[in-house]
TrEMBL record:
GO biological process: transmembrane transport
Protein name: C4-dicarboxylate ABC transporter substrate-binding protein
CDD domains: PBP2_TRAP_DctP_like_1
Keyword NADP carried by entry: no
Species of origin: Sneathiella litorea
Length: 379
């Protein structure tokens, strides 16, 4: 009996160990979705969180992800490296933070003055990345990631304590910009561009490190800027688009089945449109609270509007030259022309359905992402 009892104990112990191992494996299989942005940001609230829920449902629980927002897992500048190294499985990359690694995506960023309908810009950027820019796909592959399209925020405005409606009022102002063309524009009007993360905008503005913040109107609420900046000059200068809000570690992607990859791609199409929607939603929330928060919207003068158009024309050649010399893109102009063409195409497609997110998402998937071979993407 002693031998039998010992054997039973051994078997029981092995069973418990096996169950424990499977439990640990199950826990280990939960993916990590990293966002450097706060939970209040539209790309977290309206994009990452719903994406995770949809994917879990569509995969019958096979694909589950835990969200790490606010930079709790990876910051904005190290998300690309963190995805490459497998620290996170999905992340939100701002390509501006890593220009030498993603030169073709910087080309997209530098064309942020083109287009007026954010959802259409998201669709155009996605088609450009996925179907017309081999250099984009090569950049992603070289850096160990798979990017499922691009997305656009709403137009950037000037938030300050003062009226910035004239060129004279802009001269000498320290303007927080996300770099690139925004910094070049600031310089062109005699202002001083300052590069700081969006998470530090409030403190920088309150301490006088910057006089102006360039961001979508919704940032007044999501970053509490309306506590300090009571004047918004509605300059509509450009919309932020140099990011992959669904950037996937190649290590994670390579472990997925074709069906699982398709689930991610279908839900990415929804999320890319939701990115633009989320920013518009935040803008609308601010508009509804302007009186309560004592915030004034100011129309820029004709000279400011004209200066933006003149800058846009002149900057075309700057983008070409910088693409060739700084980012080593042999012939940027055909790619730039293609981007403009696609923006026009998608603005015409989306104009009749611009209030129907589901219709826009379906069109984006059917006409772009469904044409991408899930098996070969990233290989």
């Amino acid at each position: 009996m002693k031998k039998v009892t010992s054997l039973a104990l051994i078997v029981g112990g092995l069973t418990l160990a096996t169950v424990s191992t499977f439990q640990n494996m199950a826990l280990a299989e939960e993916g990590r979705f990293a966002s450097y942005l706060s939970p209040k940001n539209p790309v977290v609230e309206f994009v990452a969180e719903p994406f995770i829920e949809r994917v879990k449902k569509d995969s019958n629980g096979e694909l589950t992800y835990k969200l790490y927002a606010g930079g709790s897992l990876l910051g904005g500048k190290n998300t690309a490296a963190g995805l490459r190294d497998g620290i996170a499985d999905i992340g939100q990359i701002v390509f501006n933070y890593n220009p030498s690694e993603f030169p073709h995506s910087i080309l997209i960023a530098d064309m942020a003055m083109y287009g007026n309908l954010p959802a259409a810009i998201s669709a155009a950027t996605t088609e450009f990345m996925m179907l017309h820019c081999d250099g984009c796909l090569d950049d992603y592959k070289r850096n160990g990631i798979v990017v499922l399209g691009g997305a656009s925020a709403t137009a950037f405005q000037l938030m300050s304590k003062s009226d910035l409606s004239t060129l004279a009022s802009l001269e000498g102002k320290k303007i927080r910009t996300p770099g690139g063309l925004y910094a070049r524009w600031a310089t062109s009007v005699g202002a001083v561009p300052v590069s700081i993360p969006s998470s530090e905008m409030y403190e920088a503005l309150s301490r006088g490190q910057v006089d102006v913040v360039v961001n979508p109107l919704g940032a007044m609420k999501s970053h509490s800027l309306w506590d300090i900046a009571k004047k918004v000059t509605m300059i509509d200068i450009a919309s932020f688009r140099p990011w992959g809000v669904f950037s996937i570690s190649a290590k994670h992607w390579n472990g997925l089945t074709d069906d699982q990859r398709t689930i991610l791609m279908k839900n990415a199409a929804i999320g890319l449109i939701d990115t633009s929607y989320g920013y518009q939603k935040k803008d609308d929330e601010v508009l509804a609270m302007l009186e309560e928060k004592e915030v004034e919207l100011i129309e820029p003068s004709a000279e400011v509007k004209n200066s933006i158009e003149e800058f846009k024309k002149a900057d075309w050649d700057v983008i070409i030259e910088q693409g060739k010399t700084k980012y080593k893109i042999e012939d940027p102009e055909p790619l730039m022309n293609k981007m403009v063409e696609l923006i026009k195409k998608w603005e015409e497609k989306f104009e009749p359905i611009k209030d129907d997110n589901a219709a826009m998402s379906d069109m984006l998937y059917n006409e772009v992402l469904s044409k991408v071979d899930a098996k070969s993407l990233g290989q």
